[in-house]
């Protein structure tokens, strides 16, 4: 499917809230890359991910798009019923930045690989 998306002109392969399918992603991507996949891999997440899952994606993901909802522990508890949302998100966003670095844009303004390049 990723190769079909590439052939259709997509600019990236965007995995949305993918933590529960990380093993399948890690199994499928090498096959797709061997068959010609050259698009950046985007990890689009709520930021409430385990560091274990993120560490498995190190070197695979080109772009991280964390959705950091609330900074405060009290607001996290009130609106998300998760007291640790802010703490978990701070750790995961830091890990994502460690892996991919600052955003990099091409001449068309499209995001691509930062310090990591999982498909290049």
Can you offer a commentary on this structure?
The chain has one domain. It is 41% helix and 11% strand. The protein has five helices and three strands. The protein has helices at 2-7, 22-34, 51-56, 73-80, 85-100, and strands at residues 13-16, 41-45, 63-66. The longest helix has 16 residues, at 85-100. The radius of gyration is 15 Å and the shape is elongated.
List the helices and strands and how they pair.
Elements lengths: L1 H6 L5 E4 L5 H13 L6 E5 L5 H6 L6 E4 L6 H8 L4 H16 L20
Parallel strand pairs: 1-2, 2-3
Q: What is the string of SSEs from the N terminus onward?
A: HEHEHEHH
The number of helices is 5
Largest sheet: 3 strands, parallel
Radius of gyration, in Å, reads 15 Å
Distance between the termini: 19 Å
């Amino acid at each position: 499917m990723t190769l079909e998306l590439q052939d259709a002109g997509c600019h990236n392969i965007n995995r949305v809230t993918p933590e529960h399918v990380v093993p399948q992603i890690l199994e499928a991507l090498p096959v797709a890359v061997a068959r010609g996949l050259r698009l950046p891999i985007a990890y689009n997440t709520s930021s409430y991910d385990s560091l274990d899952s993120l560490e498995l994606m190190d070197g695979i993901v080109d772009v991280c798009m964390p959705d950091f909802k609330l900074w405060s522990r009290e607001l996290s508890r009130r609106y998300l019923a998760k007291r640790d949302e802010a703490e978990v998100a701070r750790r995961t966003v830091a890990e994502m930045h460690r892996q991919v670095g600052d955003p990099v844009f091409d001449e068309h303004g499209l995001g691509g690989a930062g310090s990591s390049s999982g498909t290049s």
